[in-house]
Amino acid sequence: MPPDDDDRQPLPRGAGTRPLKVLVIDDERDLAELAGALLAFHAVDNTVVYSAAAALAVLATDPAITAVFSDITMPDMSGIELAGEIRRRFPDLHVVLTSGHAPPGMLAGRDRLYRFAPKPYRIETIIGLLARGIAGHQA
Q1: Whole-angstrom Cα distance, residue 7 to residue 5?
Q2: Is 60 exposed, middle or buried (0-12, 13-18, 19+ CB in 10 A)?
Q3: CA 34, CA 61: separation in Å to the nearest integer?
Q4: What is the β-pairing status of strands 45-49 and 67-71?
Q5: Mean pLDDT value across the chain
Q6: Quick count: other Cβ atoms within 10 Å of Cβ 115?
Q7: CA dihedral 116, 3, 50, 66 (to 10 degrees)
Q8: pTM reported for the whole predicted model
Q9: pLDDT for 58-96, tens place per residue?
Q10: How confident is the model at residue 133 (pLDDT cuts 50, 70, 90)?
Q11: CA–CA gap between residue 16 and residue 114 (Å, rounded)
């Protein structure tokens, strides 16, 4: 059952007058599409991709992206490696990571760089993490 309309929590706008747009990355297509649909239900514009390589390609061509929500456990490049590359290439983007399989300590020393939500998560938790991250970047 979808949340009541009263549960919708739209994210703040991006820097300046740019609307917020989230890039969702997960190699499990169903989970990626579900996250994108839930964000859209909460009035959050988003683009969904299924690999780190696709994410970097979108970020290189879509300057409207203001935040990233990525799974950690992916083939070829982990979400942590992707987050590091995003930080290097696009330092103003806020990154939230998620995983249902992340070994303890995987984020050790990185917890101040990226926010994390374990799977299963509530979309309201992700929206809150994204909102706090965007607000922190604007401060």
Answers
A1: 5
A2: exposed
A3: 24
A4: unpaired
A5: 83
A6: 21
A7: -60
A8: 0.82
A9: 999 999 999 999 999 999 999 999 999 999 999 999 999
A10: confident
A11: 22
